[in-house]
Amino acid sequence: MRRERRARCSPPATSRAVAPALLAIALEKPMPRHRSIAAFVILAAGAYLIVAAAGSGWSYCLTVDDLVQRGAKPGSRVRVEGAIDGPTLASDPASGGARFVLRGESESIPVEYLGRVPDLLRPESRVIVEGEVDAAGTLHADVLLTRCASTYRGGDSR
User: Which CATH architecture has domain 61-146?
Assistant: First the structure.
C-alpha cells in the first residue's frame, strides 16, 4: 500500500470544519457551579480590599477655609494646608511637639502637633498637617509637612 503524502503546512480539510464546531460546543457549555462560586468570591474579596484601602488611606488636602466652611466632624481624619500664624507658633523640641494657629484666606484653626518638629518650621511658613479634629475644633496632628520655598536664596557670597 502506498500512502499519500500530505503537506505539513496545512491541516486536513476535515479539521478546518471541526475546529469551529468544537469551539461553539465549548462556549455553550456552562461553567461548573463550584468554579462560578469561587470566581465570585475572589472578585468580591478583591472589590472589598480596594474599597477598604481607598477609605482608610486616601484623604484630600483641604484649605483651612474649606475645612471651616464644611465643618469637620469630631474624630474625622483630615489633611489641611495653610500658613502658620507667626506669633502663635510655640514649639518644644524637648517634648517633641508644636502648637500654632493655621490660617487660610479668612479662617483659622488651632493645631496641636505631637512628633518631631521639622527644621524648616518657621512663623509664616506654609505647612500641610494631617490628623483628627476634636469637638472643640482643634486639629490634633500626627503628620506635619513643611513646604519648601520655590526659589533658593543663598547667603552673601563675597
Answer: Beta Barrel (2.40)
